[in-house]
Design brief:
The complex is a heterodimer of chains A (340) and B (508). By secondary structure, chain A is mostly helical. Chain A contains 15 helices and no strands. The radius of gyration of chain A is 40 Å and the shape is elongated. Chain B is of the alpha/beta class and 508 residues long. In chain B, 45% of the residues lie in helices and 13% in strands. Chain B contains 20 helices and 13 strands. Chain B has a 7-stranded parallel beta sheet. The chains are: A mainly alpha (340), B alpha/beta (508).
Chain lengths: 340, 508
Amino acid sequence: MAVLPMWLEGPGRGFAVGLFALALGMEYLALSSAPPWPTRELSFAIYHLLASVLAGYSTGRLLPQGNRAEKAWLVYMLFTGIALSLPVIGALGLLGVVVRFQNLAGPRVSHQFERADVLALPERITANATPHSNNAGILGILQHAYNPESRVRAVLATRKLKAQDAVPILRVALKDPLDEVRLLAYALLDRQEKAIHRRLKHQLAHLATAPPKRCTFLHERIAEEYWELAYLGLAEGAVLQHVLQTAHEHAKQALTAQPSNAPLSYLLGRILLRQERYREAGAAFERARALGYPQSSLLPYLAELAFVERRFDDAHRCLQEVEHLGFRSELQPQVKAGGS
Amino acid sequence: MTDISAAGNSIEADIALLLEGTYPFIRGGVSTWVHQLINGFPQLRFALIFIGDRRQSYGEPRYPLPKNIVSLDCLYIAETPQLGAPKARRGYASTFDDIRSLHTFFRTPQTGMSSALMQRIANDLGHAAGLSYADFQWSELAWQQITDSYTKYSTEPSFLDYFWTVRSMHGPLFALAHRLESLPKAKVYHAVSTGYAGFLGALLHYRHTRPLILTEHGIYTKERKIDLSQVEWIRDAEGIWNTNLGDELSYLRRLWIRFFEGLGRLTYHAAEPIIAITEGNRERQLVDGAAPERLRVIPNGVSVVRFAPLRALRPNPVPFVLGLIGRVVPIKDIATFIRAMRSICGKQPSAEGWIIGNEDEDPTYAEDCRQLVANLGLNERIRFLGFQDIVELLPKLGLMALTSISEGLPLVILEGFASGLPAVTTDVGACRELIEGSTQDDRRLGTAGAVVGIADPEAFAEAALTLLENPLRWRTAQQAAIARVEKLYTQEALFESYHAIYAEALAR
């Protein structure tokens, strides 16, 4: 059984082909010695016009669906005009174009898009930007890759990490045997630190002349900036001790004016914990809890405090509560280890 | 010493020194070296060709100009040739073909480049019948080349950013080419870095067919690469069209880096000999495209005679004063020194840190350093002394400190050694060779201080305290320092090497 060419398949296509055949018939009548009516020229004009309209419409209908313009009548008129201006040849040419178009058109597929006037937005963002390399991968490259170019790229890749993840990796890179790796790591570390020091400079300058309420706010901000230096690992040794002490002093000043500031109590607790002043840290965390600071943030520090004070049962209980609350993937290993 | 001064009325100078951002307007190690070199050859006539960014950045010369300097010409790369109203033009096809070949060489250096090509480009650059600045700005061929390159190579979306980067990158080259004919003629050109100075040297070499000598103290290309990786005036493309996965620099940064790498390659192609001051730098020059047979190593040297008398002026016990002698600029990493002083003062409350160097080259950084001193509560312990006569200062120091993140062969360490002062330095450039020795014979002379990693204030503080708290160890380090500088790093050895090089070049 003969298989029809693809362009003949589908609804309406046979009808369009029939119309085209009729158009050719009309052309023949126009050119033949059919009865002239009322004159030879008028007879030719009428038959040729009819043939052109039929050829234009039928070849327009034969175009692949995707190639038809929204205003199909424009296509029909264009094709009619072509057939009109070139007797017989125009019609045959149009058919040839349509056949060629069928060969160029891709496999017929059903509509992939659903047309809608208004798109429903997702309720919340579900897609996460996954970095193409994680911390362990970057650190591994820095420590073990033989190719220096790989190590340079690893340093550059830290720009996509969070600051607290990038800084320890960059410190490892500072000891790289290749000058370029060391200098790039230095530049990236320096950029982090410079940003904090510039903010500090601005805040300290305002502190001298600010009114009391503003002063309290500035003390809090300055404490946070100094804490940031410690937290990110940008300060070490004696500089770290100095930075923590300065953060402590500013936090205490702010708390004196705002004793019911829960986030400030929480910050003070973290500073004191880092300074290994455990009893005071515990008191600060308890105050933050009493003021309503979220348990999910407090529990890991309370667990750490309990651990260093050798209250292992309390540490275990805190970690179980953390697991129960179920949060912060970076703490999962510690939570799983402590909870079991 | 054989007389090597040249004769000839048509030659205005024997040696033209090409100096980018250094002597005589900026104080520093390289400037001191240049001043020393000129004074070391009083029978030669030197022309100075200084290249800076813009006129208002520089004041009066910081050094008294020796009598054998016959001229001082200043070129500013921001002063591009003045053009009138834009005029449509085609450009010269053969010139643009040459430029295309040159850029192919920059992208794929292994393809090599012929001297004939460079000769043609040097002759055409800045000429109305070759590649004028107007042609670069307005010609059809220039536009075609820029758009072709953007389409083929750029991985980032903004054509506007790409276009203006190319414009601003090439402007300085036309600024230099524009002044070529007005520069003094010399028998030999001597560039003291690659970059714009080296490029100008290459142009002069090809135009006048005179030898070009290159001496590199640091590695210009490497330093530009580090700068360009972090400058904030290059905007990195962000967003979904950015194909950069984050583990490489943005295309525009890489374009700038390749530009300076290209200038370096052009200089290496034209220069002979190519002199490094350390073996490490020589190896880097090889990697950057210098021909091995043209490379030499000539270390810096100091006048031991000038500094030796200072040894007798040292007080006993050794003062707890660390001196960092250098410009207050980011590459010196003064911040690490300040942080180290925080640790040192924690254990030795009477310790002092003196920062001795100009602060006006980078006022923002100098202010950041002062702020850091204040933030760390060291206002009473750290002093910013500005530029000082080091002959007066050296006897008052207990230790020379160097916390730079990049160096060549620091003259200031050698000067300290000659005056009997050990040093604690970061492990950059030739510092380890200076402190610990390079060859076996050299290492037998002993350790002249300590070397620590960069940006490690705790390690620096520990090394400094170990030396200052132990008089015997300090004395041993002092003896090693004196022995090393007297054996290997004298001014006489430096002048002897350059005498041979100048004599050979002048005879070509």
